[in-house]
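Hi U.,

Before I forget, here's the chain from the pilot set. I'm dumping it here mostly so it's searchable later in email.
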Amino acid sequence: MKLNKLFKDYVGEDVEISGLSTNTKTLKKGDLFICIKGASVDRHDYIDEAIKNGAAALVTAKDVEVNIPYIKVDNPNEILKELYERFYDNPQDKLTLIGVTGTDGKTSSTTIIQQLLGDDICGYIGTNGYSCAKVKGETENTTPGIEFLYEILDKFVKSGCKYVAMETSSEGFFHHRLDGIKFDIGGLTNVDKEHLNTHKTLENYIDCKKQLFRQSKLGILNQNDKYFEQFKNINDYKTYGYKPDCDLYIKDYLLKPNQTDITFIYQGKEYQIVSPLLGSFNVENLALALLICLNLGYDISDLIKRIKNLYVDGRMTSVDLGQDFFVLVDYAHTPNGLRRLFDFTNQLDVNKRIVVTGNAGQRDASKRKYVGELCVLNNDHVIFTYEDPRFEDPLNVIKDLTELVQDKDNYETIVDRAKAIETAIMNASKNDLIMILGKGNEDYEEIKGEFIDFNDIDEAKKAIKKKLLMK
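Structure:
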């Protein structure tokens, strides 16, 4: 796109703009560099670096002495969204946008939505990256910044995508990554104490969650969530849950080690469903996803036929290489997520329950003692290890995790995560259940500013193979 098309009032030297950028680290040759200002960073300070990296032109808030064209505006931050909309020709208006927020279940719910609608026509954006049809990639944040978001949406449009199921995190709203985005449907999983390192108070955290519904035409709400009343009057809404007056009523379910049998009632008719997704929390995630798809005009009978093929990467992932014990890898890392997981695993007929877990460094430390307590009180043995320590000492994190269980003797510390996983598996007996928690299918560990290749599922497989070879 030519610069004078992007800025219709521009009368200076015209150049071809190949992309937009607010960060010199991701800027490509031919990009327009937009000098936005953040709380601690002013992109005007990086103009020389942007030019060195190949910027074709600049957007600034002041006069600058440069040898490339620049456009001076009152506030680059205020026109950022407009520039991305114009450059990518408003891709958000060509898609049906579905946002899902909540403390737990965002990844599972959005993944289920994509699979129910079909990944050839429904895109996914969230913790596991982005995907639709043949388009696939990684995201730096659960909810990408505006610079990356519009690029992804544009790729989706060009791939023939019609819907997008997006994880909309509280931090995404807090950092204004979704400002001005209009969602056709917003869904709520649950609300629990989380991310208070960012939001400071639970009220602030809930308010960021509410923002999705302020920006949505229709809300799909969990009537059983304790904060339901705070969300129900924001916009038009429909409900799912365990009460007969819900639009999608979860009448009953039976948990099994390999499936979940569910009875749903919708519009007065009862449906018996067999789901491959395990745990009561996945009953709710499936209900949310179903109700969203139903409100897009899909027939419930057609949707039910697709349920048997559902899977959620890194969520209740069974690692089975023929061993005589069970291994589950799951992303659960919040008190609420762990409660829901243990509510399920405590009902299973297994021998010992063994957990390998940690907690992320430089994140909300107030929840750690509750995470540790839940793990120790609900299982036979716990191995505390590191989990994305970043620049924080893993031993300090583990100290926080064990604050409330100093009088217990069913836990140990193995700082190295690979060694912790191997130890749990090598010591497993027949019919034991080993749960490797906190990271799901993430393929890295963040340690002192570096991203180290690491995957819990792969590490579990290595250890299982080693154990089987020893027999």
